[in-house]
Amino acid sequence: MTQNDFRNSEARLGLYLILPAVVLVILVVILPIISGIQISFTSQRVVGSEYEMVGLKNYLDLFGDKNFIASLGRSAVWVIANGLFQTVISLLIALLINQPFRGQNFVRTWILLPWAVPAAVTAILWRWMFDATSGIINTSMMSLGVLEKPLLFLANPEIAGISLTFVNSWRYVPFLTIIFLASLASVPEEEYEAAKVDGAGLWLQFKSITFPNLLPTLTVLGLVGTLWASNVFDIIWMMTRGGPGVSTTTVPVLMYDTAFYGYNISKASAGAIIFLLLLIIFAIVFIFLNRKQFILANETFKDLSK
Amino acid sequence: MDRSFNGKSLRLMKLFSLTFAACLLGINLQAKTIQLTMQHMEQPPSRVEAMQVVVDKFNAKYPQYRMKQNVVGWGEAYSRVTAQVEAGVGVDLQQAIPGFFTAIRQTGGVQPATEIFNKVAKEVKFIGAYVDQYRADGEIWAIPAFGMLELLMYNKKHFEEAGIPHPPKTTEEVLAAAKKLTIPSKGQYGFALPASDTLAGTQSIYTWMGAFGGKKIFDDNCKPIVNNPQNISAYTFLKELAKYSPPDIGSYAWAEVEGAIVSGKASMITFKNAFMNSWINDSGLTANDLGAAPIPVPSDVSGERFSLSYSNAFMVMTDDPEKQEGISKFMAFWLSPEIYGEWLGTSEPGLFLPVTDNAKTNRIMFSAPVLSKFKKQHQMSLDEAPYTGMYGFMQNNYCPAVGQFEGQNFTAKAMEKMVVEDISPKEAVQYLEELMLNVD
User: Fold this and answer.
1) Among A120, A291, B173, B203, which one is most buried in terms of CB atoms within 10 A?
2) Which architecture characterizes domain B33-148+319-382 according to CATH?
3) Angle between the N-to-C axes of helices B229-242 and B410-421, in degrees from 0 to 180, rounded to the nearest 10
4) A241 belongs to a structural domain
5) What is the C-alpha separation between B338 and B356, in angstroms, rounded?
6) What is the dihedral angle through the alpha carbons of B79, B85, B89, B91, rounded to the nearest 10 degrees?
7) Cβ-defined contact of B197 to A241 (cutoff 8 Å)
8) Which of the residue ranges A110-114, A212-216, B157-161 has the most confident prediction, judged by mean pLDDT?
């Protein structure tokens, strides 16, 4: 067997191995998207009902729909708030538990627990804790004299978004922390030792060594995190259903409500396609602007996998 | 070799042949059994168990049919049923409420049920109001199975402690009682009004709209007619009532409302008799401490005795005549006095009301262990049944927009906006009508 034959057979094996995944993606992602695009050009209200082709009407209606435009804005705020909060907190935790201490392995393992809890359980748990009159947070704060009146975590439109951001972050921070920990493991120890010899303090070490080494990971998480956060639906729907009012109605929530409670599947499909296009444009621009970091990240992950 | 055909071997071979023949016969009999599937959204275990009792008894009585139940949550019902219809793998009987029916009917998967209804109606006497919610285009589209309605439920102990001698009969008395019963330092509020974008909010708010005389939401041409003085009065009343409710009612759904009355956090609610078990188990009070009264009306002549009522019915999804015959037999069996009375009494005591007029059914229902303790409250539901109605089914024409009115909780959205954004009742009602006018 020549080297070329070997490479060809290896490539073929690789192809066979990823084939089931490709078929699955075609069946559960690509085909539904194509179907969604097709429905978005129709007047179909209920799945399976009769319809006419209406061209771009649903798209034009949405661009004139102030609810949809507002939900795009809320989605943007949601993504930025979650992204910033989760990145800062998870990075701090990662830096903290990256230091050697007794029980480090235990903490590193069990920190993942909130991420493993199903979204439905998380929602119920936090709804109880946020309850104005019997929730543990309000009753504790009031009995300690910190609050005079209960905080309406989910019933006040000015606070509901913050509460949801906190709960969503509670779920995702552990996962991000683990990613940061893995990335921190790839930072050469010699660099810190050299810095210490030069008399660099903790902040200078972070600024000059840790942060530049984490930048590729941060960039990848910036992209993946944005896409994840944009599509969060479960926690929002189960905790506030987009309320109070429309204060937590992001695009996925609005589209779900339009499709399954407003019985307008074609309009919802059009909204989902617009949102998908916006995310694709964002991803392309983001990758283009940060292409260098993505190449570095690729190398880091290759090193880690070795 | 000869030894293998001795008497013992022959007996074994005979036994094997007979067993094989019996299996074939069994398969043949099995082939003649008609499979029926009913899908419903009554998920709590007690309801599934009670339904299984009915199904088992039916299967035992009619061996030519094999009925099975399939349970889905209300949250996923719409997507599940439309997908089933689209894929052509739908069930034979599908639970519906009026708004849900209007949506699912658009799929073309719902069969006219007039013929089946007429067969069942020969066996049982239906209460007309429960049937009317499924009449459209000269056909009946679903067989009523049970009703639900809202009452004013109240904590008698709280009333006694506050020195309020009787339940409020007028909306003015409701406000006065709610004010007196609201003691935030004790964590007690006069009323638990679900001012949230939920079906709980929709139903509770519509009940009050009806009590103020605004029960009709469409005219005969299906044009929204909710922007009227009656509804402005109703929303004015609700805005006032919200002041005597727990502060987070903007996120209240059914569970929170029920939890509020059972835990003593609220003294009054408008609700279905759906929580008798939890009242007995969790309130620390007796059945006699739970009061039930008709929905109060304004003291002037503008309002009327009214409450929201639902007819839960089963749509026929199969066009197979043999299966349809089985469905008519099943519905007649389920609604027969003994079976129906027992099911009503055990499934979710107090929540489900009979859609048939039969004294024997009621007698059996009232003798059920939990319901026998709550006779007065449940009798109140039965007494109020003639004074009830359902949004979108009070005009001469069938208005499909009721699906969105209910699905997107328009009345609750207006209420939520009024409470959260502090807009006036007049603006809230205008917003409600705007939402209805925006339905395509």
Assistant:
1) B203
2) 3-Layer(aba) Sandwich (3.40)
3) 50
4) yes
5) 12
6) 80
7) yes
8) B157-161
In chain B, which segments carry CATH 3.40.190.10? Answer: 33-148+319-382, 151-294+408-437
String of b and e for B197-211 (b: at least 16 CB within 10 Å)?
A: bbbbbbbbbbbbbbb
Three-state SS for B390?
coil
User: Residue B68 in 3-state DSSP?
Assistant: strand
**B298 neighbors B234 (Cβ within 8 angstroms):** no
**Do B327 and B305 contact (CB within 8 A), yes or no?**
no
Q: What angle do CA A256, A260, A266 make, to 5 degrees?
A: 80
Hey, what are A21's tokens?
A: 């995944």
pLDDT tens, B363-418?
999 999 989 999 999 999 999 988 888 888 887 777 888 888 888 899 999 998 89
**A142 vs chain B: nearest CA distance in angstroms?**
11
Give the whole-angstrom CA distance, residue B249 versus residue B420: 10
Are B402 and B215 spatial neighbours (Cβ–Cβ below 8 Å)? Answer: no
**Amino acid of residue B21:** A
CB within 8 Å: A155 and B247: yes
**Where do the H-state alpha helices sit in A98-135?**
104-110, 113-116, 119-130
What domain range includes position A115?
59-305
Q: Nearest 5 degrees, angle CA B395-CA B397-CA B398?
A: 105
- Residue A15 within a domain: no
DSSP per-residue codes, B241-304: HHTTS-TTGGG--HHHHHHHHHHTSEEEEEE-S--HHHHHHHSSS-GGGEEEEPPPB-SSTT--
Q: Which pLDDT score, from 0 to 100, does residue A84 have?
A: 94
* Chain A residues touching residue B440 (CB < 8 angstroms): 45, 264
A120: CATH: 1.10.3720.10
Q: Does the beta-carbon distance from B85 to A48 stay under 8 Å?
A: yes
Contact between A263 and B104 using a beta-carbon 8 Å cutoff: no
Pairwise CB contact (< 8 Å): A261 & B263:
no
Reply yes or no on whether the pLDDT at B147 is more than 50: yes
pLDDT tens, A77-130? 999 999 999 999 999 999 999 888 888 888 888 888 898 899 999 999 999 999
In a domain, A48, yes or no: no
Comparing alpha-carbon positions, the chain A residue that sits nearest to B188 is A133
CB pair distance less than 8 Å for B416 and A244: yes
Of B86, B249, B408, the CB nearest to A261: B408
Q: Which residues of A touch B84 (CB under 8 A)?
A: none
CB within 8 Å: A133 and B246: yes
* Partner residue facing B250 (CB), from A45, A131, A244: A244
Chain B residues with CB under 8 Å of a chain A CB are 78-79, 82-83, 85-86, 103-104, 106-109, 187, 196-198, 246-251, 263, 265, 403-404, 407-409, 416-417, 420-421, 440
Q: Which two tokens stand for residue B324?
A: 């349809």
Closest alpha carbon within chain A to B79 = A260
Q: Which CATH number fits domain B151-294+408-437: 3.40.710.10, 3.40.190.10, 2.160.20.80, 3.40.50.970?
A: 3.40.190.10
Q: Which chain B residues contact residue A261 at CB under 8 A?
A: 78, 404, 407-409
DSSP B427: H
pLDDT band at B24 (very low <50, low <70, confident <90, very high): low
Are A242 and A19 spatial neighbours (Cβ–Cβ below 8 Å)? no
Here the tokens at position A27 are: 């069946």
Distance CA B291, CA B275 (A): 12
Least CB-CB distance to B187: which of A45, A133, A154?
A133
In chain A, what residues touch B246 (CB-CB under 8 Å)? Answer: 132-133
Number of domains in chain A: 1
